[in-house]
Amino acid sequence: SLPLWKVAVCGSLAGLANSVVSAPVEFVKAKLQTQDTEETREFHGSLDVCRKLGMGIYRGFGATVLRELPGYALYFGGNEAFRRLFAIRQGISVAQLGSFSLFLAGG
Hints:
Strand content: under 5%
Number of helices: 4
Distance between the termini: 18 Å
Shape: elongated
Mean pLDDT: 94
Helix content: over 70%
Number of strands: 0
Largest sheet: none
């Protein structure tokens, strides 16, 4: 099995991959939610935001990456650390852990 630091690095890479999708989705959602009344509405749906702003929908990508990389590293690393701890305490392999132990580990 991988050392915990490698699991955490893999988790942070998953966070980076997630950011490519979640950053523009969150940006578009925020643009649509913060519009005023229907008469002064600038955008008329998700596709309209994408058409009008183009690659501008990636505004805030850096902030999303700064949030997701450590978050995913801690989640994946922590999950694996607790799974290993529970397995050692129960005297079994990680693959033999039951649903409740996996749930407690965060998975």
